[in-house]
Amino acid sequence: MYSDSDPVHAEVLQRLKAGDHSAFEELYHHYSKPLYWKLKQMVKNAEEADELLQNLFVKVWDKRDQIHIQQSFEAYLYRIAQHMAVDYFRKLERESRLQEQISKISPTTDEDAEAQLMAKETQQLLDEAIAKLPEQRRRAFVLCKIEGKTYLEAAELMQISPNTVHNHLVKAVQAVKQHLDQSGRDIGILALLLALAQSLP
C-alpha cells in the first residue's frame, strides 16, 4: 500500500506517464477495488460499475501524459469516476427517451411471428459482421461484448495492453454497426446498435 506522498507512488506515476504497462497494471490493482465500490454506490448497478471502471482506466491510460505527479492521483481518479457516473445517467435518460419512440412503432402481439423472424435475421447479420472482422478485432469483440470480459481480462488473454483492446473494440463496433446499417433493417437493427454501443465511452 502507498499514499500520494509516497516516493514509490510518484515513481510509479512517472513510469505510467512514460507508457509503462506494468505501472498501469500496478495502479489498476491498487485502485480498482475502491473505485469499483464507489462507482457501484453511485450507479446502483454492479455490471455498469464494472464497465465504467474499465472505461475509467482506459481514459487514464489515454491521458497519462496529463497526469500531474505532485497532485493527488486518488482525487484525480475519483473526479473521473464522478464525471463518468454523471455521463452514465445522462445516457440512461437519452436511451429512455429513445425507447419511448421505439415502443411506438414496435410490432403488436399479432406480429410476434414476424418480429421473431426479424430477430433471427438480425442475429444472422450480426454473426456475419463479426466473421468479417480482422482476427484481433473479432477476438476483442467476442471477449468483451459476448463473453463479458473486462478490458484487463481481455488484454491478458490477448497479450496486449488494455488500451489496445479498447481501440480494437471501438473499431470492431464501428464495423459491425456499418454492416448492420447497410442491411436496411429497422427495429431489430436499432435495438442491436443500442446494445453494442452501451458501454463505449
From TrEMBL:
Q: Is the keyword Transcription assigned to this protein? A: yes
GO MF terms here are: DNA binding; sigma factor activity
Q: What is the residue range of the signal peptide feature?
A: none
- Domain (RNA polymerase sigma factor 70 region 4 type) ranges: 124-175
The record, for Pfam families, names:
Sigma70_r2, Sigma70_r4_2
- GO biological process, any: DNA-templated transcription initiation
- InterPro entries according to UniProt: RNA_pol_sigma-70-like (IPR039425), RNA_pol_sigma-70_dom (IPR014284), RNA_pol_sigma70_bacteroid (IPR014327), RNA_pol_sigma70_r2 (IPR007627), RNA_pol_sigma70_r4_t2 (IPR013249), RNA_pol_sigma_r2 (IPR013325), RNA_pol_sigma_r3/r4-like (IPR013324), WH-like_DNA-bd_sf (IPR036388)
Keyword annotations of the record: Sigma factor, Transcription, Transcription regulation
The record's family statement is:
Belongs to the sigma-70 factor family. ECF subfamily.
- Classification via PANTHER family: RNA POLYMERASE ECF-TYPE SIGMA FACTO, RNA POLYMERASE SIGMA-70 FACTOR ECF SUBFAMILY
**What is this protein's name?**
RNA polymerase sigma-70 factor (ECF subfamily)
Q: Which organism is it from?
A: Sphingobacterium yanglingense
